[in-house]
Structure formats: structure tokens, C-alpha cells
Fold this protein.
Amino acid sequence: MAVNANDLRKGMAILHNSDVCVVLEVTHRTPGNLRAFVQAILRSIKTGKSMDVRFASTEKVETVPLNSRRMEFSYKSGDDYVFVDPETFEEVTVAPEMLGDSRNFLVENGSVTMTFVEEKVVEIELPASVVLTVSDAPEGIKGDSANNVQKLITLETGVQVQAPLFIKTGEKIKVDTRTGKYMERA
């Protein structure tokens, strides 16, 4: 299906130079006395490389259908992460580069939404928050109880976050996966 370049949105998959690409960013520009154009950052599915592409705003772009499925994180195999479809039990292995900072919030049997293009993972979306166990929380210093004082704690995945002084080792806390910040006790 072809759409105007003006209709491109982040997360769409398109055909560009006979290669399937995912749209990472889109900006519509209208410079002074020139014609409007669309500036897009695309990531090639084959090579994994990103490129900056300019389209005329009325240029037709071929879209590629996306397929999203709910998957569960199963285990880590070497550097790679293995996810399982809870309905078909099909396994999908994902490289750490694809996950980025999201891997700091993956817990066993944790649910994610994976987007596929031609059976290749192009995006992984975590839930807005996850519950993690505190593996190391230093004791608060006596007298250090001024308003909103925080300490650096380590969670079961190895990530460190700032949390209130009353949080102790072994407790479960809720963390925002978008910002990596402490939300509340779980």
C-alpha cells in the first residue's frame, strides 16, 4: 500500500531502495520559499544501519505490514536474550543492541510487545512499569532524614536507581521503564 510521505509516522515499516526499513523519526519541513519536504531517519532491517532520507511531501512511499505479538522474556543465552510466545511456545532470540537500555528491566517471564516485519524483530516495547527486587540497598545514615533524600540502590537486573532511604534489601519496588526512576513499593 502506498502513502504520501506526509503520512509517515514513527514505527511504520516502508520499502526504500528495495530494502525494508523502519521509520525511527519523522520531521516535516517547510523552508522559506522552497517546497515542503519530509526528513526521515530510517533503519534498514537487513543491515541494521540507520540513514537520513529526504522525501518530497507528496512523494508516494510503499508501506510494509507490521505484526505485533505479546512475548515473554525466558532466559539469557550468552549475550543474546531469548523470548517465548506464550501461545505457540515459539522462541525468538534478540541481540542486546536491539534491546538497548530495556534489558535493565527484563525479568524472567516478564511480558513485552514485539513488532515484527517479515518475521524479523524491529521493535520491543516494555510495559510502562515493572516490579523488581532490591538486591542491594545501603543503610540510610542516621540523621540524614531531610526532605526527599534518596540513595542509590541496586536491583535484581543489576541496574542502579535512586530510591527513598526507607527502601531495604529484599523489598520489591515498582520502576518506570521509560525513565528508569523509582515509583513506589510493590
Summary: The chain has three domains: 2-64, 67-125, 129-185. The radius of gyration is 21 Å.
